[in-house]
Design goal:
Blueprint: E1 6-12, E2 21-26, E3 29-35, E4 49-51, H1 55-58, E5 64-68, H2 74-77, H3 80-86, E6 92-96, H4 98-110, E7 117-121, E8 127-130, E9 133-140, E10 147-154, E11 157-161, H5 178-186, E12 193-197, H6 210-223, E13 228-231, H7 237-249, E14 253-257, H8 259-270, E15 280-282, E16 295-299, H9 309-314, E17 328-331, H10 340-352, E18 356-358, H11 373-383, E19 387-391, H12 395-407, E20 424-427, E21 430-433, E22 442-445, E23 448-449, H13 454-466, E24 468-475, E25 482-491, H14 500-516, H15 522-541, E26 546-553
Parallel strand pairs: 3-5, 5-6, 6-7, 11-12, 12-19, 13-16, 13-17, 14-15, 14-16, 17-18, 24-26
Antiparallel strand pairs: 1-2, 1-20, 2-3, 4-22, 8-9, 9-10, 10-11, 20-21, 22-23, 24-25
Helix pairs in contact: 5-11, 6-7, 14-15
Length: about 550
């Protein structure tokens, strides 16, 4: 391609919440913007995380210019280790804010990959040139410190990528002037393309300011007589700061339970984002014995994770901490779709312990980190882009955001709804869709990357739904005499003592096969046993377990 251009290919984040990753390509090379993962839905049995498919990127490793990160949430940085694991020859430079890179450093160190990456911090409103792309880092308000939007000068005009953001009217830190920054960047030339966060486009109005959450926490601290337990996202340092300051004001020590939360507090203190109080303690270093009314517990477990600190506290399984009647619990986070049932179980357990639990919208204990509809409208009106692409959301979010862009003056044909793997190329003459690239997500299970596919998931679903029956049979090779078995082992299928008569009937069915078939054709015999037992169990119990015949001739 001889003309000037920039091609943007979403490898994830368009059609789902999470997995945010974009490939930006010009004639001078390739830049990756974010590299996030997604946590699995319930139907992905046993899978740990979901990552983007990087094959299209591996084809351009020689032209790879570096990776630019908007902020440090898992859905924007979590797939970096697996990118390096899959492409063993790749060495990269990573650009992001100091807090973002502190989280990346920890993540890469866990996988012994720090020698494969150079971490280069960039400050707010700093500029970075990679090939013929110049990135300007615009500070945004979000639920993690030091997040950036990207204002990018390209060979074919100016492009803005908002990253995750909100227009906080009363932030805890420095005031956010995002719309002014965007308008100044647009200047007289204007913005050719805007890519904007769509997560909360279906929520009318304006997001709540973080200071309102602090005010509510202040009220609860004043009311609480016993111990206060607060669970929040471990990267929400502004809210952690509020808790630490309120604890100091009310003369309470802060006990931190949860490795990720303790680690992130340490990083924030080291970077000057938090002032470490004298009365801060971690359960890994040992917790002091203090009266309940003199303590605040900061705990992980916002989504009801089985092994999290909050779940263990609620179930009475924590070695050092327990709930008592009169304690106050504050669930200062949103429930991620799919986790509502687990969170509800934990809340019920805490009520059983006699605690007072704040977990819904009756008190402002949480404020979203994503812009709502009025804020998205304000950004569109400040930028007034020629082309618009909604990003970061399920398809309904993208469609609603595209309609909003048209309401704000973007021409209908210039508001483009894309999905993962659909590249667009911005050129001097316009913006076009290119041929899609394969981007089916990759499943990570333990140390296996991509080895779990549809067939394995189907088998796991059957095992989870109908269970397993193993048939063990040993026969004499020369005579066909049964030396051992048939032995029936049921796992997740039936309670063996209750259905012993059924399993005995199944054994007789196996012996019948021995009489009608040569015992020396073991593969044929095993398949015959498998097929007949599956039919038998379907007829008798209307269940279809996985049947594994193990027939040995000696």
């Amino acid at each position: 391609m001889s003309e000037s251009y920039v091609t943007i290919t979403p490898l994830g984040g368009l059609g789902e919440i999470g997995l945010n990753c974009q490939k930006w390509e010009t004639g001078r090379g390739v830049v990756l913007v974010d590299c996030g993962l997604m946590f699995p839905d319930d139907y992905l049995w046993g899978v740990d995380v979901v990552i983007p498919r990087f094959e299209s990127l591996f084809a351009d490793t020689e032209r790879m210019l570096d990776i630019v990160l908007t902020h440090g949430h898992e859905d924007h940085i979590g797939a970096l280790p697996w990118l390096l694991i899959q492409c063993k020859s790749l060495r990269v430079r990573l650009y992001g804010s100091p807090f973002t890179l502190a989280l990346v450093e920890h993540k890469l160190a866990e996988h012994n990959l720090l020698d494969r990456a150079e971490l280069i911090p960039v400050g707010p409103r700093h500029s970075l040139t990679l090939g013929d792309l110049t990135f300007h880092f615009i500070p945004v308000c979000h639920s993690i410190p030091q997040g950036y939007a990207l204002a990018v000068e390209t060979p074919v005009g100016r492009v803005i990528h908002t990253g995750d953001f909100k227009l906080d009217t009363a932030p805890q830190g420095e005031p956010c002037s995002l719309c002014d920054d965007f308008a100044a960047f647009a200047g007289r030339e204007g913005v050719r393309l805007l890519l904007a966060d769509s997560t909360n486009v279906d929520i009318e109005g304006h997001s709540l300011p973080e200071r309102q959450v602090r005010d509510t926490l202040h009220e609860i601290f004043a009311e609480a007589g016993g111990r206060i337990v607060i669970t929040l996202f471990s990267s929400h340092i502004d809210r952690v700061r509020s808790v630490l300051e309120l604890a100091r004001e009310y003369g309470r020590a802060v006990l931190v339970s949860g490795r990720s939360l303790a680690a992130n507090i340490e990083k924030a203190v080291a970077l000057g984002l938090l002032e470490k109080p004298d009365n801060l303690h971690s359960d890994y270093a040992g917790l002091p014995s203090l009266p309940p009314e003199k303590t605040v517990i900061l705990a992980t477990g916002t989504q009801g994770e089985p092994m999290s600190a909050l779940t263990r506290i609620a179930n009475g399984e924590h070695k050092q901490l327990a709930l008592r009647a009169g304690d106050t619990v504050i669930m200062s986070s949103r429930v991620i779709p799919g986790n509502a049932r687990a969170v509800s179980r934990v809340i019920n357990q805490m009520y059983r312990q006699g605690a007072k639990v704040y977990h819904d919208a009756r008190r402002t204990i949480h404020a979203t980190g994503h812009a709502c509809r009025d804020e998205l409208r304000a950004v569109l009106e400040a930028v007034r882009p020629e082309y618009f692409v909604p990003v970061h959301g399920e398809y309904r979010h993208l469609a609603l955001h595209a309609r909003l862009a048209e309401e704000c003056g973007v021409k209908p044909g210039n508001s483009l709804i894309l999905e993962d793997g659909q590249p667009i190329t911005l050129s001097p003459d316009g913006c076009r869709r290119d041929a899609p690239v394969p981007v089916e997500s990759v499943l990570v299970d333990g140390k296996g990357v991509g080895d779990v596919g549809r067939l394995v998931l189907k088998e796991r679903r059957i095992l989870g739904g109908a269970g397993l029956v193993v048939v063990v049979l040993v026969i004499a090779e020369e005579t066909g005499e049964v030396l051992h078995g048939p032995e029936m082992i049921s796992r997740g299928f039936v309670f063996e003592q209750q259905y012993s008569h059924l399993l005995e009937d199944a054994k007789c069915l196996v012996l019948d096969h021995l009489e009608t078939m040569s015992p020396f054709d073991l593969p044929k015999l095993q398949e015959s046993i498998r097929s007949s037992l599956r039919h038998f169990f379907r007829d008798v119990l209307d269940r279809d377990p996985i049947v594994v015949p193990i027939v040995t001739a000696v």
